[in-house]
Amino acid sequence: MSSPGFALATARIDTEMIGYAFGYVLQPGARWWEGLVTEQLPEITKETGQRTFALNELHIRADHRGEGIASALHRKLLTSGTYERATVLVRPDNPAGEQYAHWGYQPIGRMQPFPDSPNFVALILPLTS
Question: Which CATH superfamily is domain 7-126 in?
Fold first, then answer.
């Protein structure tokens, strides 16, 4: 929560939380790209402190999936600042990858953030034209 550009969005019905999403803005020298296994041009991983919003978590309670809540939370986070793009890491076998593709995210390579972590697909969503 102390990360620069941290944003959190929640979805509730009355007092019951049914979903949440959060992330932060990548700062210059951010470790986010260090586990990128697929080689990229340096401009892909260059951060300015305002360029990229990193979506860390997006979760909707199972009995409320398919109601547009994830889309609303995602949209709320990405309009909380003026970012050029968003990024998220997703496991290759995670069905959520289909939703990210539907929203326009494009894969840029494989990522293993830590030696003992699972492999992920790194996705980027351009937010400016």
Answer: Gcn5-related N-acetyltransferase (GNAT) (3.40.630.30)
